[in-house]
Amino acid sequence: MNEYDSSRMRDLLGDSHGFVRTDNPDEADVLLLNTCSIREKAQEKVFSELGRWHKLKKSRPDVVIGVGGCVASQEGEGILKRAPYVDLVFGPQTLHRLPQMLNDLSGDGERKRISQVDVSFPEIEKFDFLPEPRIEGHKAFVSIMEGCSKYCTFCVVPYTRGEEVSRPFDDVIAEVAQIARQGVREVTLLGQNVNGYYGSFHDGSICNFAALLRAVAAVPGIGRIRYTTSHPLEFNDDLIAAHAELPQLAAHVHLPVQSGSDRILAAMKRNHEISVYRDTITRLKAAKPGIELSSDFIIGFPGESEQDFQDTMDLVDFVGFDHSYSFIYSKRPGTPAAELPDDTPEALKKQRLNILQTQIARNTGRKTEAMLGSVQRVLVDRPSTRFPGWLIGIAENTRWIHFPGDAALIGRFADVQVTGVESINALSAGAPLWVESEAEAQIGMAVLPGRIPLWHEAR
Ligand code: SAH
After folding, report:
1. What is residue 310's predicted lDDT score, i.e. its pLDDT?
2. N or C, which terminus of the chain has less Cβ within 10 Å?
């Protein structure tokens, strides 16, 4: 989500305002920090980075420093109290006002250094003001809804991004068609709870998420569709039917559960029992044989007992998750769970997290090994750095497959036979060099050498 917001900021400033992107803070005139407040660690990083930029500003006082994202939303003016040298504070729902805010900073010739703070939630006007996305590569995110109205007791999102608002159906489809014309073949529909999408048609009637998926699948050029994140509560029959029907819909679903214990789910206010989750998975697997599941877990939520944790591990066994994003509970100020007594020792929480991650990493490895000999449809993404002269394709289940092939294949779908399997357990010390992002390192991404028996273009 933050990656998506960052690229929108880039489009916004580059397109009509003539800024050129640089990765080197020393040569930048404007420094923007997009922030996340989902856990405390992410938030702490903001002020340490700002400290580094402060030094820079001392030698070049004209440099503009802006802080966007959820930490900005949450702290608002508070950012200026702690870091008075910051010029702009804007939230995820006001990032489209960035050019105007930058403009307001400089008065008639003489710079008015009055810091600008705008962290409001102006419905969904944002998308009307964003320029058309500029696409690099063949995979892209399309935001279909903003915010969250679930108010889980652990989570800051409703307070930092506002309530759930869906983008109109026509706007989403127009954006998908536009990026498909620019060469995008794989689209990831993005939102806090995408399956809670209820966008309006131009005649005012309402379209649900499954209907949106069917329309996206019909856009010429789109060969693969993913979506993230969804909520177990709204994973309805129509969505399960869409998985059975649409070959473009990746057989890999990320469905966060957080805990396998009914007691903890109730305390988190997830509004469903674990039987609902199990039943959804059972029906999804029946509708789409071979579908893989991943999830988010919070370990050590206040009051989590040994039995609650055991219930989570039982769920892990039942579903056989392919991977997970799992973290120890982090107390977020202003959320209801922050008031709950928490007497589980930190060491025990770490131990539980380790047990869960080890079990799921074992599943990841087993499922990777089972791919040996199979033919996988990959979206050919980029040249391989590990095997010079080869390419990297991304399989439906998100594994990378390296194979020899002509660079002309990049941006096309290819059927690749897996001839070797190398499973990286990046959770163990010393993540290998070819794990290229933190997210990939966390799920223990696999590298699978393959060869290419045949290929075809996207449907
Ligand atoms: N909308 C999704 C997930 C949204 S937040 C859902 O409702 O399930 C993304 C993930 O961050 C969550 O799934 C959760 O696992 C993690 N997270 C959110 N708040 C957290 C907290 N206070 N401590 C630890 N992890 C948290």
Report:
1. 98
2. C
Is residue 145 within 6 Å of ligand 1 at its C-beta? no
Q: Where are the domains of the chain?
A: 2-118, 127-369, 375-450
Tell me the CA–centroid distance for residue 21 and ligand 1, in Å.
31
- Taking the centre of ligand 1 as the mean of its atom positions, its distance from the CA of residue 343, in whole angstroms, is 21
Q: Which pairs from 261-266 meet CB under 8 Å and 24+ separation? A: 261/304, 261/307, 261/308, 261/309, 261/311, 261/312, 262/311, 263/303, 263/305, 263/308, 264/301, 264/303, 264/304, 264/308, 264/311
**DSSP β-ladder status, 64-69 and 88-90:** parallel
What CA dihedral angle connects 441, 444, 445 and 451, to 10 degrees?
140
Note the pLDDT of residue 247.
96
Entry field: residues in the chain: 459
Predicted pLDDT at 246? 98
Most confident of 7-21, 122-136, 165-179: 165-179
74 lines ligand 1 (CB under 6 A): no
Eight-state DSSP code of residue 138: S
Nearest CA to ligand 1 atom 10: 296
Domains 2-118 and 127-369 share a fold: no
List the CATH code of the domain at 2-118: 3.40.50
Q: Whose CA is nearest to atom 15 of ligand 1?
A: 296
CATH architecture under which domain 127-369 falls: Alpha-Beta Horseshoe (3.80)
User: Is 155 close to ligand 1, i.e. is its CB under 6 Å away?
Assistant: yes
Phi and psi (nearest 5°) for 54?
Answer: -60, -45
pLDDT greater than 70 at residue 373: yes
How big is the CA angle at 456 (ends 452 and 459), to the nearest 5 degrees? Answer: 145
pLDDT band at 440 (very low <50, low <70, confident <90, very high): very low
